[in-house]
Design goal:
The chain contains 14 helices and nine strands. The chain has 389 residues and is of the alpha/beta class. A five-stranded mixed β-sheet has the order 4-1-5-6-7, sandwiched between helices. It has a two-stranded antiparallel ribbon with strand order 2-3. A hairpin with a 2-residue loop joins strand 8 and strand 9. 39% of the residues are buried.
């Protein structure tokens, strides 16, 4: 009987806080829906492949025309899952420099370059010239988890076509070009960009709970009697937490370097980007505080943005990036509304590809704009929910 009384007590207490119960129950289903949208529902990941086809058709001994480059492209587009969804998203390109930039930005997994003499070499080999040979090139960021999968599929299609066309040991060799220093990075170094962003993502809890503590204790009521504005109050909290973030970032960077981490690009720029990412996370935490009445409320609610910031930004592991729209030539996805997404991309480019400010200017610009946007929302919400009562 006493056991039942405790259950009834819990039920009655929970009735007074149905919102928190709803949030707890909605957490996992919400992520199911998000992953459904990110992965295309019943479809599967289509790995993006850029192809520069410079092949010129050749004449066979029979008089027929051979366009081997086009056949390779057709074979790549023909790969599909059992449900019919394409395995590869093949895009033709004419500008190698632009294609390499897309691979560096991880808008594509691999770049395939088919040489001008591809068909001619196969035609000569079929005619009996065993000295005929040519070379196809695969270029990519070897630290990109999608590169290996896409590259294997591309070479499987190319090898199968060449083997069928010549019925002989392949006259085509593979030249793999690693962008930046991606071929010399250790597994440990590959994890560092995500870990550095994860270090600042955890600030969402502190940013949410510090204002909530003032709300719960009544300290905010006393502060409202002063000329203090919502901007000044949240700005002061943000400055303090940014100082904490800077210390955390420096300690994390120093630990990574002590463990053997090497950056191919300017380390100072990487630290600056991580600090801006920390500011964006703090702004999101302040928004959570505006929706909280107690510290415990803030802690529970903060788990929602924490999940988004960890699992949808690429900090924990990479996810497909379905394109919603194109902004200044850059595809924009669901995750791009989360500032740390751009920090992860920028840090990867700096650490692995040796990128400077010019090459990460787009990511930094979006990171700054989103940080200002989220902080502005926090100030507006705090003024409406806490300062105008």
């Amino acid at each position: 009987m006493r056991l039942l009384n405790v259950v009834i007590k819990c039920f009655r207490e929970q009735k007074r806080d149905l919102w928190m119960l709803g949030l707890s129950l909605a957490f996992a289903p919400l992520f199911v829906v998000i992953y459904y949208l990110v992965t295309g529902g019943t479809g599967s990941t289509a790995y993006s492949v850029l192809v520069i086809n410079r092949d010129r058709p050749a004449r066979l001994a029979s008089g027929a025309s051979l366009a081997a480059g086009e056949e390779i492209v057709k074979g790549l587009r023909g790969l599909s899952y059992k449900n019919g969804s394409p395995l590869l998203k093949v895009t033709l390109s004419a500008d190698q420099a632009q294609a390499e930039r897309q691979v560096r930005d991880r808008q594509a997994a691999v770049l395939l370059l088919i040489p001008p003499d591809f068909s001619a070499a196969l035609a000569a080999y079929q005619a009996g010239d065993r000295s005929a040979a040519t070379q196809v090139t695969l270029a990519g960021d070897l630290t990109n988890p999608y590169y290996t999968i896409a590259a294997v599929m591309v070479m499987t299609v190319a090898d199968a076509y060449v083997s069928d066309a010549t019925h002989a040991p392949r006259p085509v060799t593979l030249n793999e070009v690693a962008l930046g220093a991606s071929d010399s990075r250790s597994e440990f170094e590959n994890y560092i960009p995500g870990l550095l962003v994860m270090a600042v993502v955890l600030l969402v809890f502190q940013a949410a709970m510090m204002p909530a503590r003032d709300i719960e204790s009544g300290a905010l009521l006393r502060l409202r009697l002063t000329p203090l504005s919502a901007f000044e109050y949240l700005g002061g909290l943000a400055i303090w937490m940014t100082l904490v973030a800077v210390l955390s970032i420096l300690v994390t960077f120093a630990t990574a370097v002590a463990c053997g981490f090497r950056s191919q690009g300017p380390l100072g720029l990487a630290i600056l980007i991580d600090i801006i990412a920390a500011l964006s996370v703090i702004a999101i935490g302040l928004i959570v505080a505006c929706l909280s009445k107690t510290v415990s409320h803030a802690f529970v609610i903060a788990n929602f943005p924490l999940g988004f910031l960890m699992f949808l930004t690429g900090a924990a592991f990479p996810l497909p990036r379905p394109t919603l729209l194109t902004l200044f030539g850059h595809p924009f996805s669901y995750a791009d509304f989360l500032p740390p997404t751009h920090a992860v991309i920028a840090l990867n480019k700096i650490f692995t590809l040796g990128a400077g400010f010019g090459e990460v200017a787009f990511e930094v610009s979006l990171l700054v704009i989103l940080t200002i946007l989220y902080f502005s929302i926090a100030v507006w919400l705090f003024r409406r929910t806490q300062m105008e009562r």
